[in-house]
UniProtKB/TrEMBL annotation:
<dbReference type="InterPro" id="IPR013096">
    <property type="entry name" value="Cupin_2"/>
</dbReference>
<dbReference type="Pfam" id="PF07883">
    <property type="entry name" value="Cupin_2"/>
</dbReference>
<keyword id="KW-0479">Metal-binding</keyword>
<dbReference type="GO" id="GO:0046872">
    <property type="term" value="F:metal ion binding"/>
</dbReference>
<protein>
    <submittedName>
        <fullName>Cupin domain-containing protein</fullName>
    </submittedName>
</protein>
<feature type="domain" description="Cupin type-2">
    <location>
        <begin position="64"/>
        <end position="127"/>
    </location>
</feature>
<dbReference type="InterPro" id="IPR051610">
    <property type="entry name" value="GPI/OXD"/>
</dbReference>
Amino acid sequence: MERNIVRYGELRPCKTAFIDAHTPGSDQKENFTIIGGGVSESPDQHVHIADKIGFNIGAAGQPPKCRNSLHSHRTAEVFFVLKGRWRFFWGRWGDAGEVTLEEGDIINIPTGIFRGFENIGTDYGMIMAVLGGDDAGGGVLWAPQVIEDARDHGLVLAETGRLYDTKKGEALPEGVKPMPTLTEAELAAYPEPTTAEVVPNYVARYWDLMALADHQPAKVIGADAILRDRPGFEVEFLTRGSVDGSHTNEAPEVLMPMRGHWRLSWDGGESVLNPGDTCNVPVGLTHSLTPAMSGEASLYRVRRTEDAPGATMPLS
């Protein structure tokens, strides 16, 4: 089981994961690939658990005032705030709408819109991510200005999806072209939803989930959940009053504690999961999950479903 648990204190960051790694304002961010291949464009990215389970788990760590540049996904992208205070914004230029998320809040960002995020807190912040499908890296598109700014600071993204750093003397291989930017016609097809259109349908607040999960796990993302969607996985929120008894999971399942310490027990062993830890529960394992200590306890549980290929429902 230990190979299936990634401890928060053992996470290995990559500081060159994306095209904006040299761009001022985005050059201090850290990317983490915890389960699956992730979305990194750099060969330096460390993958903690390479298992393909139908969705990816990752994280982003950023100091105050650091932002992730505008990009779009063809597959689902879900974040919950583990540490800090974060602003999520979207639109062609990032000014169509925005929302501020506090610790424990979760956002299921619609596919097919440009989005970015920044740490607006006073300390280093961390957001945990769930990405749809096994090939989440194949669905990232950057806003044209991001590609242009990166080129000005020495980073070129190839059409193959790999980054080349001209400051290190790297160059595109012969026969490989730069990643083309989207045309104005293609950009015109991207929606510009307002804050009022996105927040009620794609954001759930931590303290609302705490109240809803008092007696049973709160269904956060899923066909019959608070955020009704079918991205190829479902998300539940557990608290002290909503834990399950011993059960066997028939599909891939990931446990991500938000608050408190959780005791995971199985036939032949047990382990305590802490905030920021990630546990990939093997299919077929009979296990139970209970808070290990008194006080506030909360946890996000992600399970694969078979009802969609991994794309979040776009705005209509």
